[in-house]
Amino acid sequence: MSLLPIFWEWAEFALRWLHVITAISWIGSSFYFIALDLGLHRDRKLDTGADGEEWQVHGGGFYNIQKYLVAPSRMPEDLIWFKWESYATWLSGFALMAVVYYLGAELYLIDPNVLEMSPAVAVVVSIVSLSIGWILYDLLCKSKFGDDNTRLMILLYVILVAMAWGYTQVFSGRAAFLHLGAFTATVMSANVFFIIIPNQKIVVADLKAGRTPDPKYGKIAKQRSTHNNYLTLPVLFMMLSNHYPLAFASKYNWIIAALIFLMGVTIRHFFNTMHARKGLLWWTWGATVALFLAVMWLSTAGIYMQDDSDEEAALGPMAQKFAAAEGFEDVHDIVVTNCSMCHAKEPYWEGMASPPKGIRLETTQEVATLAKEIWLQAGVTHAMPPAGSYMYLDDESRTAIRKWYETGLEG
């Protein structure tokens, strides 16, 4: 058995786990500090000169938290910087994308029915798009247009919708949603790395030198933090969407993405208003439900149907190797017989609206392209077919799958 594919599977798992851990740390601290800032009591005259304070209870203890607009009169020696959560989240996320989407470009990144291109070109388009997004956003924030934060956020939404449409014209639906999440996450993490932390360092340096810091640095940092706050929930949706083809495998997928960003705004607006003690805006949940119902309708109204009229022309170099490998015909029959009940354009399994994860296993192209997934799910492990189904793969069939895949690797 080839150990290299096993290594990469575990590497992907480890990176995904690391990404989830760091993301929880970043999102948790981000949401906490936004809620804290909004909930501060600013109507109290504090001897310390702080802008506001709040009392909190957690873990059996009481905390008296105060916020200074610039800094206290004496700079504390122990100052904790909340930055590595953001950096580690982006770095682990990019590494995960490289392992899954860049090294597996033929399978996950490129869809010949959307746009034919080489893996190298697809990777370059991916990296360039992530970089351009931050540059454009940063220039807008620093321009006169960015002085009005509401106007700026509306334009930012328009840009995100445009990127959603653009990505769906270049990549597979699954990769388009992932890239839209990565595009947004890059803006968020770059806000921390290039704006928020440097501005805070300027303030600290001024205080240590005995100068009075300019409050504008705090104002700029707060603007970027607010943007991050409203963008977080849509990013989480985009990152989870690859498990749910009804979200991305639709000709209306870019509109679905646009509505998801609006849902992020309505949900966060409810909590931000509540934390600011301005009441409970229950209408935001009504709007959220309405938006989600619209997403559900669009997902079924525009189910993407791949054109299989010329399936052989869509075979990439790796898929061609597996299609030509000894044992392919037998494996194709095994897969179609045991897997296409669910993994089909229109699944036969009762109650299943779309193939799991958008994976179809009916044609030569599909079986050859998904060789590694078939080998892992049904050859090396017994993950597929599911134990609860009446389908069953005997050891002979699983051995045939393993031999075919390893032959294709050597070919």
From TrEMBL:
Entry keywords, A to Z: Membrane, Transmembrane, Transmembrane helix
Domain Urate oxidase N-terminal residue range list: 6-298
Short name of any one Pfam family annotated for the protein: Urate_ox_N
Annotated transmembrane regions: 17-36, 87-105, 117-140, 152-170, 176-197, 229-246, 252-271, 283-305
Signal sequence region: none
Keyword match Transmembrane helix: yes
MF term (GO), any: heme binding
Domain of life: Bacteria
InterPro entries per record: Cyt_c-like_dom_sf, Urate_ox_N
Protein name: Uncharacterized membrane protein
